[in-house]
Amino acid sequence: MSKKSPAKLKVRVAVPGDVRGILALISAAYPDTENYTAGEIRGQINNFPDGQFVAVLEKKIVGYCASSRIDEAIALAPHDWPTISGNGFGSRHDPTGDWLYGIEMAVDESRRGLRIGKRLYDARRVLAERLELRGIVFGGRMPGYARQKAKAGKPEDYLIGVREGKFRDPVIGFHLANGFTPIGILPKYLPGDKESAGFATHMVWRNPYVDPNEPPEFRVPRHVESVRLATVQLQARAVKDFAEFVKNVEYFVDVAADYRSDFVVFPELFTLSLLSFESETLSPMEAIDRLTEHRAPIVAELSRMAMRYNINIVGGSHPTRTEDGTIKNIAYTCLRDGSVHSQEKIHPTPNEAYWWKIKGGSSVNVIQTDIGPVGVLICYDSEFPELARRLVDEGARIIFVPFCTDNRQGYMRVRYCSQARAIENQCFVVLSGNVGNLPGVDNMDIQYAQSCILTPCDFPFARDGIAAEASENIEALTIADVNLADLTWARAEGTVRNLADRRFDLYRIDWRRSKSSESAPVDAAPRGPKVPGGG
């Protein structure tokens, strides 16, 4: 009779598919504190894929630690957790940083005795040694301090007392036992950490294989990480039935795939051509109900095309009535692996709100694709910088902007703001708009567009920050290759470094939680500092 082999504990690099398990672990490890959001965990993983580790036992995540690379001048100076962690997203990560900074450490307390914490710290050490970093640094919790404050006095005295054996603190003790040395106290590190009275120990471990007198100089390699982008400037035209509409769309998908494009993007409201074969005039609400009937078939067809032609399709946007009766303008992104993702327009224009009674969505989230995380902002949303910044904090390097504008002024608002988003977030922005007119369909009388692929403005990119653009008001497919590695270089070593130079100590985007965010069982809207964090 064969014996059942014991369960194996494995430590590996975290991937986006681990987000739910990580959130469940942190919720159990810190039951009395506000958890991370799915977007923040995705940001940690996407911003520094090599620096996040999970411990897995019997297919369950029982440990997690998050890290980023930080420059010594920042890592060893006084700081707080929101500032050093990029408000929980890990967006402060510097690929040329010479220290590995510990953002988070969480362990399943029911699995004591498996030395999960030590295994995760060892994984960090191996990473720091492989990257030839100067060491590891973090702000560590001191959960026994609040209880012993009257007896211990200042937090510095409490730390000395723990080292001399006068007080017992399980976290400080663990850090000391694992080779970390305190270099001071960080006040107001996590104000919500009542057990630590908001203080943290400033812990370091120095890499013995790096000469402290000769700090390594890191440069971002100028390799090629090419992605081919295609944007459809679509002629609005009447169709005789649904099949003809699908045929028109599939033509452009086929051509973009023939050019081996990784993405093809369609304009906002491009599905309104489906109203052109209605036999009678529809009121705005009747039109919405008819479009809602087309939603499922459209998504099914786009998903079929994505898989058949091996291309990721950003399906413009489609007005639809949701299950709760609310009318939303939704972009459906169909990936070549068969998955479908939706993004609601956050800011309806005054015209949309009046004419179609469209309501705004409540969250933006990156979409994990085979070339990395991307984001979608529908038309007017590109004019609100908070949204693009949220996507980039989650790791997006490409933002798609399907738009529908009826005149040059409206188009230029979208164009100029999208160029600003590309510069301030050091990312690529792809615009796709409608041209022509659609007789018989209310609110689609005339269209103006010049679809384009925009870049940051720095040495690796096109002179004017335009990788490619279509001619004005002519149906066209515009294609360009972009190098994602150029973004990594620009963010670390560019002439200006908009992301790295943000003043996290002065401002942040604080999103309110909402109930309608994403399919995960947790809300993806970010908010301010929380207690999990440190180490």
TrEMBL record:
* InterPro entries reported in the protein's UniProt record: Acyl_CoA_acyltransferase, C-N_Hydrolase, C-N_Hydrolase_sf, GNAT_dom
Membrane-spanning ranges: none
Q: Where is this region: Disordered?
A: 514-535
Q: Which residues form the CN hydrolase domain?
A: 227-484
Q: Tell me the superkingdom of the source.
A: Bacteria
Q: Which UniProt keywords apply?
A: Hydrolase
Molecular function per GO: hydrolase activity
Entry's Gene3D superfamilies?
3.40.630.30, Carbon-nitrogen hydrolase
Provide the N-acetyltransferase domain boundaries. 9-208
Protein name, as recorded: Bifunctional GNAT family N-acetyltransferase/carbon-nitrogen hydrolase family protein
